[in-house]
Amino acid sequence: MTVATGIRGEDRQNAVAGWLFMTPTILIFSVFVIIPIIAAVYFSMTDWNGISPPAEATFIGLDNYKTILTQPGIRQTDFFTALKNTTYFALGVVPMQTIISLLLAVVVNQSLLRFKSFFRTTYYFPSITSSVAISLMFLFFYQKSGLVNQILSTLTFGAWEPIAWMADPRGLIHIALSWFGLTIQTAPDFLTQTSLFGVPLWSWISGPSVALTGIMIMNTWTTIGTMMIIFLAALQDIPNFVYEAAQIDGASAWSQFRRITLPMLRPTMFFVVTLGLIGTYQVFDQIYVMSSGGPAKTTLTIAYLVYRNGFNNSQMGLGAAIAILLFIIIFALTMIQRRITGSEAAV
Amino acid sequence: MTTISESIPQSNVNGRVSWATVKKVLSYGILFLLALTFIYPFLLAIATSFKTLPEINQNPVSLIPQVVTLEGYQRLLTFNVPRWTLNSALVAVSITLGNLLFASLGGYALARIRFPGSKAVFLGILGTMMIPGIVLLIPMFIVLKALGFVDTYAGLIMPKLITAFSIFLMKQFFESVPRELEEAARIDGASPLQIFFRVVLPTAKPALVALIIFSFQGAWNDFMHPLIVITVNQQLFTLPLGLALLRGGMGQNLQWNSLMAGSMLTTLPMAIVFFVFQRYFIEGISYSGIKG
Fold first, then answer.
1. ipTM score here?
2. What CATH class is the domain A66-171+207-345?
3. How far apart, in whole angstroms, are the C-alpha atoms of residue B185 and residue B175?
4. Nearest-CB residue to A324 (from B41, B135, B162)
5. Which residues, including other chains, have CB under 8 Å from residue A314's CB and lie 6 or more apart?
6. For residue range A228-272, what is the model confidence (pLDDT) as tens digits?
7. Is B218 helix (H, G, I), strand (E, B) or coil?
8. How far apart are CA A282 and CA A323, in angstroms?
9. What does the alpha-carbon distance between residue A315 and residue A306 come to, in Å, rounded to a whole number?
10. Which CATH architecture has domain B79-291?
11. CB interface of B with A, residues 15-44, below 8 Å
12. 3-state SS assignment for residue B12
């Protein structure tokens, strides 16, 4: 009898303590995460401008979503241009950062390597630096007379024509096509005349612009350190005897990498690619500081469009709708990726 | 592994350069070259911050200023930068303290205290981690406006006092602490609060250091949140926000020595924290990274 009340007393004490300990967290999460999410869904169905009292906003149902997805016009064109740019951004950055950081991790992980911690520290440092500071630095390097052009010029023995990176709206694929004589003037009509979601086919296949490529290179540069450290930790978890056994069997370095390292790193690969996708689809700070979406909207990303609509164009409702579409896109991409990598790889 | 790799060069006695040597030279070559691409930009930014504007125009890539000037830094003073630095420090320290306290309380409760609803709370927090920050941009503004937190320190600090990431870091840590410690204290009649502060928390030092680093880094470098909270009051700018708007205000006529000076000013505190706590950074990121 006394034992039973003792246990119940302890249960109650635990319940009180548990909820007491969680109170600050629950409070802050409710006010600054849960309520905003609900508010986002609601306001995406209003015409709120961000200035008048929120209560005065008119409920307009799914009109914002219709404007973006189905009604031809500047808003639809902007959204799909941003979607295109952001997708090129992710398609470039995610594979680049994953492959480079994996290779770096494998090289740095070699047991006989000296200066290991120097390399680790050096590569990781940009990851802890303010995105605004890094963006300003690269803005400086990307000038016509800046560091990047000078390096390229040196590497090509002067053959490189300096370009003003951040002012260059030419798409990389367009540039490549122009080498074969295919430009907007010579392109077949179906490319230039047909539009999909308010963006001409010719623009869809532009590739990232030179300006966006500059930001992509910078973004890769800043993120590979973090990814490398994640890969390094996973590499250190692969037991040595697996490699030793393979070496005794005469496996080459390449086949060890392909048959042992890569399969063992699959869960980590999934994690890194997911991180990469989530990060790239939200790219914002760099765009704000370096290009404000220009030149010719070729660095307009979805995140920047959300901000611009909400805070510069007084279209909070429309901005909220775009943010929700972005959430759906990121969620879907993560799910698709999980399917491809195999669900057992899920962390 | 070590012994086998070491034995490879010795087995190659016929005078040819062994594959192991080639591999080594190649590895070091690539690693050092790459290290240079990581270090040079920072050195150049530092050098530029001490150059005069004409010199920057004339030679934007040299590492050594012909004339060392503090012009870039002095101009920053006229833009209220000291105030922005103080704001950044105040905000980052408050947010770090908040995360330390609330994340260790919450993480401990989720890891160790069996209370009704703990599973639901845990899943709820897990769910919010799936929501990309940018999605909350506008709704956060709506809530801050409703609370009257726009253009206030409260707006800068309160929403960031606890993050899902911090909670997970601490929860994971507390799960690794042996239960015997608490059992002994419990038998002695200590309350959960006493057990937490006297017995458990002192063992959590490594996790707390990792938490300090990540919270401080996140808050110090944050740009998006201050951007939406501070709409008009320049007195409340944080360093990254002020710097970005400074750039915007200069238009086409960018004063690079000041912009680089500001960037270095923003980088310096993080660099110090980083070099002092290096080990914890690396440990922390692998720890949190792997567990996802």
1. 0.88
2. mainly alpha
3. 17
4. B135
5. A49, A50, A51
6. 988 988 898 888 888 888 888 888 888 888 888 888 898 888 889
7. helix
8. 10
9. 9
10. Orthogonal Bundle (1.10)
11. 23-24, 27, 30-31, 34-35, 37-42, 44
12. coil
